[in-house]
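User: Protein folding is very new to me. Would you mind checking the protein record under this note? It all follows right here:
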Amino acid sequence: MSDECPAKRDRADDERPAKRHRTEDGSTTSAEKVYAAPPSVVPAISEPALPTQSYKRDEDVWFSTGNIVLVTSYEVAFRVYQDVLSRRSEVFRGLFEFPQLPSGVEREFETETMDGCEVVHLSDAPSDLKQLLLVIYCRKNFFYLKDEPISVPFYSLSALIRMAHKYDVQDVYETALPRLRKYYTSDLERWLKPCDRNPYVETTVLDALAVIDLAYRIDAPELLPTAYLICCSLDGHTRLGNRVHEPILGDLGPWAHTLRARKVVDATTQLGG
């Protein structure tokens, strides 16, 4: 009986040259060459990859220690803290519990991540969502400077109202909407004193169109009388930049004057009442 270690015998067998096989032309080749499949035939086994990310990080709302990434339209990304949003908004809490995959991505893909954080896709404009995130995370105060009220740009104010209403951030909503009411008031006496309203909102007559749209979205009819009153002073077609905006009066032909008159009567009646 041989005293050779079995492990050494196995290793010696492994090191023994492979048996060579004779080919059709009489030459010989190794077993590895005979049984090796061409490289193109060997199937590649790999995990499904997520789509290539091309998201743009927001410069102001991107926290290096954040644990979730919100991606808005135009592929702008915000890295924030999930727990903070979950405490402020039940809507966000639900989104984080049941994240949605981006459109066009198959369910077989794993959860999308960016910088090690889970990605949640939102349909909002990045400039809209950013206003809300600035308030929540950066303690941005749009309303006061050293305890003195300041005029809020209409765009920022309307974005705060829309986002706070959509995501049910009540403290922001209950602060922003009353500020808009101070300008688009249903009180005739206050309406006739622009100097008392101007310090609260920085706005133009064209913003009245957006106010009407906003009022219907959030069910705030008290904003409508003065907003309609302003709109009635506009042409049937109001050009905003390179686009024609006509959701209120539109091209109604002979009915346009009737509609304007009715809105004026309704608006002044409500203000007078």
Q: What stands out?
A: DSSP finds twelve helices and 13 strands in the chain. Confidence is low (pLDDT under 50) at residues 2-12, 28-50, 239-258.
